[in-house]
Amino acid sequence: MAIKFTEREMIGIRRKLKDYARRTVVHTSMQKITIGDLAKAAGISQSAFYKFYDSKELLFFEIMEDMHSDLAENMNKSLLESSGLPPQERLVQAMRSAIHYMDEIELMRFFQEDVPVILMKMPQEILDKHYHSHDVHIRNALKGSGIEIKVPDDVLSSLIHILAYSLIHKEDCGRQYDLALDVLIRSAGEYVLTGKVPGGG
After folding, report:
1. Tell me: domain 1-53, CATH 3.20.20.370, correct?
2. Secondary structure class of 128 (helix, strand, coil)
3. What is the mean pLDDT for each group of 10 consecutive residues in the chain (201 residues)?
């Protein structure tokens, strides 16, 4: 006989599944995390897992969307707190905050290795309704802040990708990574606000 869960139990189990998945995926590939691992962490059977998610990938898709929302919230908080500063300094602080947040929660390993697999296995209707990449969330936060952006969306997205993916090679860059990143962010900020390459005349 199938076990029935109360609404309160359903909420609690879903939270345990997501908490375990998010804690684990920052250092372990999603493909190595089994439904048995997830079910054990939530105190349910493997068959009961499917009462909550149709697949493991759907759970991790939710984790990805939660990370995107947290990243946008981080950006919005920085932009709000810096509202009295000049536009370039606001943009620089917001971008620096976003990159440091992505580094703190070790986002890029998950985005580089697991997210392509997740997206490949998601039904198109779910992607159409819910999916936006991390650069879109950052871009929307910047554009919603009142800061006038002078470059096309695809250029802004490329700049965000370059800054974010530098985290993957942080160790290779050595002790001066933070300084180098700050130089890149400030140069990108100047370009985004003026539409002119710094030093380009």
Report:
1. no
2. helix
3. 82 96 92 96 95 95 89 88 91 90 84 90 86 77 84 87 88 90 93 83 56
